[in-house]
UniProtKB/TrEMBL annotation:
Family recorded in the similarity comment: Belongs to the HPF/YfiA ribosome-associated protein family. Long HPF subfamily.
Residue span(s) of domain Sigma 54 modulation/S30EA ribosomal protein C-terminal: 146-199
Protein name, UniProt field: Ribosome hibernation promoting factor
Species of the source: Rhodospirillum centenum (strain ATCC 51521 / SW)
GO molecular function: ribosomal small subunit binding
Cellular location(s): Cytoplasm
A Pfam family of this chain: Ribosomal_S30AE
One cellular-component annotation, GO: cytosolic small ribosomal subunit
Function according to Swiss-Prot or TrEMBL: Required for dimerization of active 70S ribosomes into 100S ribosomes in stationary phase; 100S ribosomes are translationally inactive and sometimes present during exponential growth.
Keyword field: Cytoplasm, Translation regulation
Amino acid sequence: MQVTVKGKQLDVGDALRSHVTDTISALVAKYFGNPLDATVVISRDAHLFKADIQVHVGRGILLQSYGEATEPYPAFDDAAEKVAKRMRRYKRRMRDHHGRAAEEAPLLARKYILEAPPLDDGDADDQVDSLDAGTDAAQAGDEGHQPMIIAEMETSIQTLTVGEAVMRMDLTDIPALMFRNRAHGGLNMVYRRPDGNIGWVDPAGTGVQGA
């Protein structure tokens, strides 16, 4: 497995680079036989050091974690422990899903990141209204209110069960995940609610559910 270690706002020395590479390699090899690659970014923000870890352990399976501390080693170790916990918790389920995923081609979709409009009179609510209005105007062809596209990428929409989608969202530590429901083939979404529970949007079932 290739491990890439990067520094942001700091120089990653040989000792820290070796510690990160050895730890990640040993950790992933303990749970997965053929991992793809891993990227670790160590950054500094004022008095805090932050560590971001991304590990591709299989086709379409990405683990992410984040840690911070007042020193770079504890920041990385914190993030690495979070990855380890997720690997221990989901190893069996991820292996089962990986076997099925190899038989099902993912649905490809375009993914965009839109620039947030500036605040109007300091009112945060106006920012949301302005973004909604800008999106509607763009759909209607009004170039004067079209939000700027910061990034355009291609993403894959995997075919999953609801349980697998919740697992994938938890593994990647993202707030929402769109997927193709294996039960009926329609597009669904799961998302993390403010109360900590998981919401599930199922247009085919004409309902929004909370878990």
